[in-house]
Amino acid sequence: MMTGGWGVSTAVDSAALGGARRVALLFMRAMLVAAVTALATACAARAGEGNPTITPGLEDQIEIRIINNNFSDARMYAVHPRGREYIGMLTGKTEANYTLDWDMSQTLSIEISLLAGGTCTTEELIVDPGEALFLSIDSTLAMMADCR
Question: CA 97, CA 68: separation in Å to the nearest integer?
Fold first, then answer.
């Protein structure tokens, strides 16, 4: 009797098996090994993910995903202890990803300026390098929570 590492056991008597049955058993064993290997690989990949807000490859940057639900185009600025930095412009009713150089943990707020008028600055957050942030611009800027 042979026992696999995953609690699977098979009884094998080579002399009693015919050639076709032996091939079928080997094929089934190979399929089982392939399935276990695929499962182990998938689990190992998930185990390495860690914090879901950390984006691999962005160790000295942050990623900001912005969805503009407003009809107006919007200019966005990052406001942090080092100053005010232009992020980009986003057309109305579209979405985009932006990256900023970010080498240390510090506060960040985002200033939104609609071309049709209206400005909003989000609440300050402490942001670490490698984090991914999400910002949704409401269809009515005045209705955005945590806007000042």
Answer: 11
Q: Say how many C-beta atoms besides its own lie within 10 A of residue 48's C-beta.
A: 8
Sequence ranges of the domains in the chain: 2-47, 61-143
- Domain 61-143 belongs in CATH node 2.60.40.2890: yes
Q: What is the pLDDT of residue 36?
A: 41
In angstroms, the CA 130 to CA 102 distance is 8
Q: What angle do CA 96, 102, 107 make, to 5 degrees?
A: 95
Percent of the chain that is helix, strand, coil (3-state, to 5): 20, 40, 40
Measured CA to CA, the distance from residue 16 to residue 44 in angstroms comes to 39
- Portion of the chain with pLDDT greater than 90, in percent: 51
